[in-house]
Write a structure and sequence with these properties.
Elements lengths: L1 H15 L12 E5 L9 H10 L2 E6 L4 H7 L5 E6 L4 H6 L1 H19 L2 E7 L13 H17 L7 E3 L1 E3 L3 E2 L9 E2 L4 H13 L4 E4 L2 H7 L5 H4 L13 E3 L2 E3 L2 H15 L7 E6 L11 H17 L12 E3 L53 E4 L10 H10 L17 H15 L13 E4 L16 H7 L3 H20 L3 H13 L1
Parallel strand pairs: 1-2, 1-13, 2-3, 3-4, 4-5, 6-9, 9-12, 12-13
Antiparallel strand pairs: 7-8, 10-11, 14-15
Helix pairs in contact: 2-3, 5-6, 6-7, 12-13, 14-15, 15-16
The structure holds 2-acetamido-2-deoxy-beta-D-glucopyranose (NAG) (3 copies).
One 2-acetamido-2-deoxy-beta-D-glucopyranose binds next to loops.
Length: 507
């Protein structure tokens, strides 16, 4: 009787205060924060950007000191990546795993108050393109990291996971219910998931509808997106028993769930580690498509609406927070343009958060001067020295927006050359000597941007450093900047230039 009365009271309270009974505020969002930028947005500004936009969870690809320190006491939960190149050493030695946990987890938790919740061991280690390179080391690395977390007394708070590419599973007839693991790694997947399940871990999967479209020109475009409310389902929708899959995300996620269920592993939580849409570097990568995809995704996250097999939306880490102009373009030119925000934290397109609230830009960003490097008005774009100069400029800066179908693909020959010169000039912190190019270039204070093509001005990382609390970092930044001058005056060694750009990026 007392129990019944308690239950009645509980139900009454639940009805009166529904918000108390939700697992977590539904507007909470998670995002990937990559730091491969030549002029990274400072950590404190980035953390404020996250908070202002309701991101309460963030994924880092490596233990980036500045990012982690900025996340201390921020209330933001962190998934911290252990990069693939550490899998072999950490798999080979419990001590290496313990050192990694002490140096990269314990320190930040106890000394800086960083709320680390997951260690992501490896990044898509079973990707087909790696041809098995990380297959032998991933599970032992996971086991050693788990043991190290236990030893550090962190195992209750910090759980292990492995972010995998969606190519670890497949469905031969295209129906999600036929899903199973890729045969060459099936046994490995079962052992890995079993271990994660037994140790309170989760499985993390990266799903990229954009890449489906990029890889296959015949892929039905509307099936890549979440259907607009009330719109008729895509012609490409997949009927699977009595379920109609109207978009590739649902179908893809449920293919994995079906594979797990087939092997009695359906209890493992499956979170989405990366999903998003780039805005440049390919004909399908533009603000309109990215807005359409990400708004559909945000709406699903906010509504908490999952897939037919997992009706509750899992944790979803949007890819990505910011553009990264120093990432490898091996996957394609779009790889540097996944940000919901530009490199400087300004929104690329409007997005609605919970209750229709718009996303807001980063605050307090300091820029270099309003000046650009362009082709001299009296120089000819047909000058025989141009090709070499442009090639050089683009080798050490980001020219991925110049390709066909990209935001600067429509520039004429003159503006095209100017764009390349300016990218290099900005990458080199607007050092005068970086706007030399055999006397073919000149500095201007008139913004050369036209149409969709923005001639950027970079973030003044030096000034951010100087205002920060780290005099040694600021000093080393100065050192780098002055060696730029010497180097660029001579344009001597491209290798050295590369090293310096990397130093700049890392500093
Ligand atoms: C901590 O992480 C960084 C970045 O991934 C790495 O370079 C370093 O080797 C790690 N420390 C240990 C002890 O493994
Ligand atoms: C512009 O520059 C890019 C990269 O250097 C090149 O591929 C493209 O053909 C150029 N376009 C024009 C119109 O010069
Ligand atoms: C650069 O070009 C300008 C205009 O063509 C010319 O006046 C100047 O002397 C040149 N400077 C050098 C160092 O060649």
């Amino acid at each position: 009787m007392a129990a019944l009365r308690a239950l009645a009271l509980l139900l009454w309270v639940a009805a009166a205060y529904p918000v108390l009974f939700r697992a977590r505020p539904v507007q909470a969002l998670a995002v990937n924060w990559g730091t491969r930028a030549l002029h990274p947005l400072p950590g404190d500004i980035t953390v404020r950007l996250l908070r202002d936009n309701g991101f309460d969870r963030v994924k880092l690809f490596e233990a980036d000191t500045k990012a982690l320190q900025a996340l201390g006491h921020s209330g933001i939960q962190v998934m911290l990546g252990l990069p693939n190149d550490l899998l072999a050493p950490v798999a080979a030695s419990v001590n290496a795993a313990e050192q990694w946990v002490i140096q990269n987890v314990s320190t930040y938790v106890s000394k800086y108050g960083v709320d680390i919740r997951y260690v992501a061991v490896g990044n898509e280690p079973f990707l087909k393109a790696y041809k098995g390179k990380f297959e032998a080391t991933t599970l032992p690395a996971v086991q050693n990291v788990q043991a190290a977390l236990v030893k550090a007394g962190l195992a209750r708070q910090v759980h292990v996971t492995v972010p995998l590419n969606a190519d670890v599973y497949e469905s031969l007839d295209g129906r999600p219910s036929s899903g199973d693991f890729r045969p060459d790694i099936s046994g490995l997947m079962l052992s890995l998931v079993r271990f994660l399940l037994d140790n309170g871990g989760v499985l993390t999967i990266n799903i990229y509808p954009f890449l489906s479209l990029y890889a296959d020109p015949n892929f039905p475009v509307d099936y890549a997106f979440f259907p607009a409310p009330g719109a008729p389902p895509s012609q490409a929708s997949v009927q699977d028993g009595n379920v109609l899959y109207t978009n590739v995300f649902d179908a893809n996620y449920d293919t994995l769930i079906a594979a797990l269920e087939k092997h009695g592993l359906g209890a493992i939580p499956v979170i989405v580690g990366e999903i998003g849409w780039p805005t440049d570097g390919d004909k399908n990568a533009n603000a309109a498509n990215a807005q359409r995809f990400n708004q559909g995704l945000f709406d699903r996250i906010i509504a908490g609406k999952g897939t037919p097999r997992r009706p509750r939306m899992p944790d979803v880490y949007v890819f990505a927070l910011l553009d990264e102009d120093n990432k490898s373009v091996d996957p394609g030119n779009f790889e540097r343009h996944w940000g919901v925000f530009n490199y400087d934290g300004s929104p690329k397109y409007p997005l609605r958060l919970a209750n229709g609230r718009p996303i807001v830009p980063a605050k307090g960003v300091r820029y270099l001067s309003r000046q650009w490097c362009v082709l001299r008005p009296d120089a000819s774009p047909a000058d025989p020295a141009i090709a070499g100069a442009v090639g050089y400029a683009c080798e050490y800066s980001d020219c991925t927006s110049l390709g066909a179908g990209s935001s600067c693909g429509g520039l004429d020959a003159r503006a095209n050359v100017s764009y390349a010169f300016n990218q290099f000039f900005q990458a080199a912190n607007q050092q005068k000597a970086a706007c030399n190019f055999n006397n073919l270039s000149v500095i201007t204070t008139t913004d050369p941007s036209q149409g969709t093509c923005r001639f950027e001005i970079m973030i003044d990382t030096g000034r951010h450093e100087l205002t920060g609390k780290s005099p040694s970092a600021a000093a080393s930044n100065h050192l780098v900047v002055s060696s730029w001058t010497a180097l660029l005056l001579t344009m001597a060694s491209p290798l050295l230039a590369h090293a310096l750009i990397n130093t700049l990026a890392a500093s």
